[in-house]
Design brief:
Order of helices and strands: EEHHH
Radius of gyration: 32 Å
Number of strands: 2
Number of domains: 2
Number of helices: 3
Structural class: alpha+beta
Shape: elongated
Helix content: 55-70%
Largest sheet: 2 strands, antiparallel
Distance between the termini: 59 Å
Length: about 100
């Protein structure tokens, strides 16, 4: 037979039922969508993913601010306020 077959079988009422079996589609994408995916994948493999370069000076400045900011804020807060913030953080962690 060709790419499909016709089989017959009996139904529960005793009648012959003809079933056509064809190949199932492997993808639900349109041909154009599949072509675009292929082209995008080739570009990604040859050129690499689009990742913007980071400015090293800005990275260093941001890291420096993060290192300074936390301890400075902790010194400025009262012990009571720090305990309140810690309690709220623990409650948020455990509520997930």
């Amino acid at each position: 037979m060709t790419h499909f077959e016709i089989k017959s079988r009996f139904t529960r009422f005793g009648h012959i039922c003809y079933i056509s079996l064809m190949h199932k589609r492997t993808s639900k994408d349109d041909v154009n969508q599949m072509a675009k995916k292929v082209v995008d994948r080739i570009i990604e493999l040859t050129e690499g993913p689009d990742k913007p370069e980071k400015n090293p000076a800005a990275v260093a400045l941001g890291k420096l601010g993060g290192l300074k900011g936390g301890p400075a804020r902790a010194r400025k807060l009262s012990p009571k306020r720090r305990a309140l913030i810690a309690r709220a953080a623990a409650k948020a962690r455990w509520s997930k």
